Amino acid sequence: MRPSTVRDALLEAARALTPHSETPRLDAELLLARAMGRTRAALLARLSDLLEDSGILRQFERMLRRRQAREPVAYILESADFYGLTFRVRPPVLIPRPESELLVSAALEYLEQFRPEQPRLLDLCTGSGCVLLAVKRHHRGCECVGVDISPAAVSLARENAKRLRLKVTLLTGNLFDPPQLRDFAPFHVIVANPPYVALEEWSGLAPDIRLYEDPGALLGGPDGTDILRQIVRAAPGWLTPGGMLAVEMGEDQHGAVREMAEAAGFTDIRLLPDLAGTLRALTARRP
Questions:
Q1: Could you read off the pLDDT of 4-55 as tens digits, one per residue?
Q2: pTM metric for this prediction
Q3: Contacts of 132 (CB under 8 A, 6+ apart)
Q4: How does pLDDT run across 260-283, given as a tens digit for each residue?
Q5: In whole angstroms, what is the distance from residue 204 CA to residue 181 CA?
């Protein structure tokens, strides 16, 4: 890439990324901003600046090649924004996504409405810890526990907790299995963003997901509901009376998940849409 203005570099990079990304211009802006050590807003405010530093140009070219190989921008930048916070991310731990913010909002709304004494929240399949830590940031008095089967995810969540200076408990294990979990039960809120992609849908996912993110954090059995079913069935035994369960789910799974919640004895069952209008989360309360 020859020296040019910031504007020209972005145009050239966006053209190069167009076959490999649904958001080539945005990707180019984020990557060049990082290479230049600027915010995206600062970058866009100085589009006429000359881009002459060979070190910046080389770094930008390296990042562009990674994106052309379909590596997600969040992994290249090693960070992702979620609920107003910035989290460290690295493969193969799942990248935080906007739809998971529904779980944070539901948990905070419950805690604000019912104001339980010594509130306790459990986050299953915690991944990078984004849901758990966002709740803790906005409700410091809540005792928050996160569980993930992946040691890599738990390690990253601990790193994010330390970086954000938030005190939470993180356990390695499969859902409700860690023996230490009994020391914190019962919980007022259980949230979960479990694997919910059906096996037959895997080949149709974008290469950005299939090539880089952990299949174990995405695949939920033949129809995608295996882990959801385990969580919904077991959750009443871990909740206080009146406690709330909030789970994220895939497109077209809301009917099946609602039936699971009804069968488990939950009441006040609600379906929450994401920004695209897809019913993406379910909340329900233990009687």
A1: 899 999 999 999 999 999 999 999 999 999 999 999 999 999 999 998 888 9
A2: 0.93
A3: 121, 123, 126, 144, 145, 146, 157, 168, 191
A4: 999 999 999 999 999 999 999 999
A5: 37
Q: What is the pLDDT of residue 1?
A: 57
- Strand 50-51 with 4-5, pairing: antiparallel
CATH topology for 91-285 is Rossmann fold (3.40.50)
147 beta partners: 124, 171
Burial group, residue 275, by CB count within 10 angstroms (0-12, 13-18, 19+): exposed
pLDDT at residue 2, rounded to an integer: 61
CA 91, 104, 253, 171 torsion: positive or negative? positive
Strand 187-192 to 169-172 pairing: unpaired
Domain boundaries, the chain: 4-69, 91-285
User: 4-69 has which fold?
Assistant: Helicase, Ruva Protein; domain 3 (1.10.8)
